[in-house]
Design brief:
With 291 residues, this protein is of the alpha/beta class. 38% of the residues lie in helices and 20% in strands. The N and C termini lie far apart (53 Å). The mean pLDDT is 98. It binds adenosine monophosphate.
Amino acid sequence: MELIVSIRQMQYYAEQQRYAGRRIAVVPTMGYFHEGHLSLIRQARQLADVVITTLFVNPTQFLPGEDYERYPRDLERDRRLAEEAGSDVLFAPTVQEMYPAGYTTRVTVLGVSEKFEGVFRPGHFQGVATVVTKLFLATKPHVALFGQKDWQQTLVVRQLVRDLNFDVEIVVVPTVREADGLAMSSRNIYLLPEQRQKATVLYRALQRARELVLQGQRRRQVLVQAMAEELHSVPEIQLDYAAAADAFTLDEPEEFAGGQQIALLVAARLGQIRLIDNEVVQVPPTGAERA
Ligand code: AMP
């Protein structure tokens, strides 16, 4: 596997691959790989001739006071894991390379970026849209893979691709979980043992609401309350939000319709660690609705 750190070299490499008729997949990441990242890389391997994994802890998507400095980093380990999972290139630019002195451009996606994570992390999705734009222009992919773990992010990226006419197919890969349901995350290593055990409440809250939907519950408030109640059963949990919304528009109707895809979304803090998770579930249509 090749390690590339310069944008110019990355573009040159990508251009050569395209000229040779090869299909390029990109997997954007912030590193400190776990099975979630590796499943994206393995899936990319299935979809393209050339797999480029990007590793960049993007400062512009962290708010002041968030964990940018503390974010876990281990280039040597990531290099080995990415190679084992089938990546051809690890593109790992420095902050200076991505945002040199005098850099001023930002990419803003309105709409889907304004709720939920957008409220609790203002500016976060602008950082994401900006870096994804720059990574696409550096790696020239045909297809880009993102994890369902960050559901709202996948919507922001899809909107970005539509609006700016990026000729890139977006593929969303299911969330990889620990045996007890906790969604894998690079930040999980910072959970103390007792916090780690309590963190499973996010998954339980989502499962409870999911069951309600599958049993025919369509009232948004009932779903939200079920999740909030479960989350509040752990006193150490500080809830940012528990929400049920149309999975693609993020609209929040009083009542969902048969056949509609619902995103159940939760974000909570356990001590210093902020956790997010989601499930997407379809409202079972009644016989009449199917007809
Ligand atoms: P990150 O390094 O956390 O920015 O994540 C890089 C990519 O991996 C994003 O598209 C994430 O949505 C995805 N990802 C992170 N955690 C998981 C997971 N547990 N399962 C699937 N994908 C994930």
